[in-house]
Every structure is written in C-alpha cells, then in structure tokens.
Amino acid sequence: MQEIADNVFIVHNSLGLVAGIIQNEHGVVLIDCPSRHDEANSWREFAARASVGKPRYMVVMDTNYDRVLSIRGSESILVAHADTIAPIRSRLASLKIADETGSHETHETPGSSNRMQTPELHFDQKMSLHLDRLSIDLEHHPGSNIAGLWAIIPERKVVFVGDSVLIDQPPFLAYSDLDRWEQDLKELASKRFKDYQIVSARSGLVDKEQIKTMAKHISFINKTFEKLCAAKAPLEEWYAKIPVIIDRMSKIDLFNSELFYNRLHWGITTYYEINCRERG
C-alpha cells in the first residue's frame, strides 16, 4: 500500500487493478476493490493493519470484467454510472453460470457469493461523495468505456482515471468511444489537472508525458478504425491490425502477450459489432 496524499492510498490487487482507499475519521471510500471476494480475510487483515475502517462506498469505475469480479459480495454501497447496470447484470448472470459449470473467462477463481448485486447509487454526468469536508467528485468520462468514471479529490489534488490511461499495454476497446477518449486525454493533460497526481487503474501513478503517449496511441487506433469502417473492411482485416497496435507499445510485457492479444481481439470484435457492422 502506498500513501500518495494525506489519507489517500493506492494498492495493487490480485486482479491487476490499482485500487484507491480514501479515508478519514468519518468513513472510507474505495475506488475499485482492493481484493477479490475470496480474499475477504486478507482484506480485513490489511484494513486492520492500515487502520482502515469499514468502507461506506465503493466506486465502480467501469464495466470491465475484473471489476465485476471484484465487487461480488461487497458490503459497501456501490456507486457507478447508470450505464453500468445492464452490463453488470449480464456479467453477474454469466458468473453464476460459470460457477455452476466450472468455466470462467479468466484464470482467476472468483469464489461464490449470495450477494450478486448491482450498484445502489448511480448517476448520469456528475455526483459527489463526502467524508465530512473531504469531497470525491465523480464524473462520467466514457472514452475508454461507456460507463467510465473519473474520481477527483480536489482537496488532495488526486484524480483516479480508471482505464483512460494504460502504460505499455493495449487499451480496452470493446465499449470505447474513441473520439471521446481523445477528448478525455486532452482534458487530462490540460491546466485543469496541473499539479494533480493521476492514478491509472492498471499502471498506478502516471505523468503528463505518458498521457500524451496514450493520446497518440488512441489517435492512431481511431484513424485506423475510421478507415476500416469507411472501407467496409471485413473483420479479418481489422484483426490484421492487432500486431501493428501491439508494436506501437514500446515495452509490451511478453509474459502477458497472449492476454494482450486476446484483449485486442475481443475488443476489436465487439467494437466492430457495435460501430461498424450495421454500416456494412
């Protein structure tokens, strides 16, 4: 666990997420979940060591699969964008089938839970949570995901940006809006977030140069997809761009190369179905 500002911590969980913990004497707000449901005992031990109380709220940053895994059995009040609800219900249904059949989409074993819930609090554009005088401002930023959120803590100059920024790994494209993603990254690199610590949900703390590099990657992918869509290219031609996209990531982790290839393959397939199939 790393304290990045007064009572604001980040911790890497076993699903590869960088979760946030914001606390004071009035409660705790989690940004994503610090552990899987089947690691509940480990989380309680960790919380005791860190003097972290029982979480009041957990912010679900988007609809990605590992986030759905991590919220199972949560005892917090779940907060998410309104567009999260339908995908999470679909995911939870698939998890129930996976539990019954023994099959899962990832190598992780999520564990079972009788509490398969969707978010209790949801919003469209903006919402604020308060721990006494400390505010956590939630904003909808749908570039990387239709239900993508940023969690901004003005008093601490910290912003959690979910999967808007990824370092040395390919982006999640399935439910993205690439035009909006470019706008999100431009805003993140603007004066609005001058002197802010920016936390990626996969890469931890990132700087402005890394954000600019991410913006170049998204711009390249956006232009590539626009050309493919305009040309009514078959899906096989889209898949042929996967090595090109991966090659742009200068330090791709070869250990995860199959995972990253599958991420892009699934993302491109879903993006094509949503955005281009009807045009064909």
Number of alpha- plus pi-helical segments: 8
In sequence order, what are the helices and strands, one letter per element? EEEEHEHEHEEEEEHEEHHHH
Task: Tell me the span between the first and last alpha carbons.
Answer: 49 Å
What is the subunit organization of this protein?
single chain
How would a crystallographer describe the biggest sheet?
7 strands, mixed
> Structural class, from helix and strand content?
alpha/beta
The average pLDDT value, as a whole number, equals: 81
Percentage of residues in strands:
15-25%
Q: How does the overall form come out from the CA principal axes?
A: globular
Helix fraction, binned, reads: 25-40%
Compute the CA-based radius of gyration: 19 Å
For the largest sheet, list the strands in their spatial order.
1-2-3-4-5-6-7
The poorly predicted ranges are: 92-116
Number of strands: 13
Structural features:
280 residues; alpha/beta; 6-stranded mixed beta sheet; 8 helices
Describe the structure.
There is one protein chain. The protein is α/β, with parallel strands linked by helices. 35% of the residues lie in helices and 21% in strands. It is built from 8 helices and 13 strands. The chain has helices at residues 40-49, 65-71, 85-101, 178-188, 208-230, 235-239, 242-248, 257-275; strands at 2-5, 8-12, 18-24, 27-31, 57-59, 77-81, 121-123, 126-131, 134-140, 149-153, 158-160, 197-200, 204-206. It has a 7-stranded mixed β-sheet, with no helix packed on it. A 6-stranded mixed β-sheet has the order 8-9-10-11-12-13. Helix 3 (85-101) links the parallel strand 6 and strand 7 (121-123). Helix 4 (178-188) packs antiparallel against helix 5. The longest helix is centred in the last third of the chain and has 23 residues, at 208-230. The radius of gyration is 19 Å and the shape is globular. The model is unreliable at 92-116 (pLDDT under 50).
